[in-house]
Design brief:
CATH architecture: 3-Layer(aba) Sandwich
Structural class: alpha/beta
Largest sheet: 8 strands, mixed
Shape: globular
CATH topology: Rossmann fold
Number of helices: 11
Number of domains: 1
Strand order of the largest sheet: 6-7-8-3-9-10-12-11
Distance between the termini: 30 Å
Length: about 325
Amino acid sequence: MSEPLVTVRNLSRTFDVSKPWLNRMIEREEKRFLRAVQDVSFTIGRRETFALVGESGSGKSTVANMVVGLLPPSGGSVSIEGVDIWKRDDQARLRTLRKKIQMIFQSPFASLNPRWRVDRIIAEPIRAFGLMRDNAAIEAEVGRLLKTVGLDPADGAKYPHEFSGGQRQRIAIARALSSKPEFIVCDEPTSALDVSVQAQILNLMRDLQDEFGLTYLFISHNLAVVRHMATRIGVMYLGRLVEVAPARQMFQAPRHPYTRMLLDAVPDLEMSGRARKPVDGEIPNPITPPAGCPFNPRCPLANGRCRTEMPAPVSDAYGTVACHAVAEGRLAA
């Protein structure tokens, strides 16, 4: 097998959420820390789509921001093409690598500058990375990118507010493609769109992946979307990866109780007669997480060991899972 394009090792991020020093002195409070991401590790192969799923507050977007280079980690490493993007010892390689990484944000209403015309928005990465100097060539490239994402080259003269949500996300995708990236981080790129538009954007992203050989890190809480897009899936809970498996394997035979809970809540679109069960409980406060396995307060299989000992991830032919019930054979297949 070839080397993975992206390698994430023991990635962690802790936020200081303490009150100001004077308030803590008066109220006699200790500092408080929120561990948003803890010891997350995974790899992404070239032309692969690796999806991170989980409820809101599980740490998915924090991982995305660290992988793309927007948020420094508290620990661990992110390597792309063998280069650790958070080590500044090889600035030349980092600059070359930077143009190969792009991000598509969740909200197309907030990610586009409302004061810039569309052609300037799409051309900005081209100019920033020095890919082209001639204005006529840049204009032609912007027109080509607009056609690639299903818009008209004449739309470059308009402002973002003149477009619908789905069209704005197409513009954001064209901007991401303008630097000719190899790796794109997609942070819930369709969650702000109508359901009918979501399918169009997802189909566009898959077509672009096939055409340009793109690699995706896809963040979502929607398992139906993930099933359509992902090659492999990682399930996050309270800042930790609890299961990683190929998409087909995970949907056919999920192993972690949390993964099963999420899949049981998905509507039965195939009308197979499977009962739909709503997700029980809520994610605990990440500032004061429960002892042992973080899922134990909601897990129907939790025992004494689950309440006191953190499960270590175990890998086998089916993937990776961190669960005492799976390790001990207490979870029926």
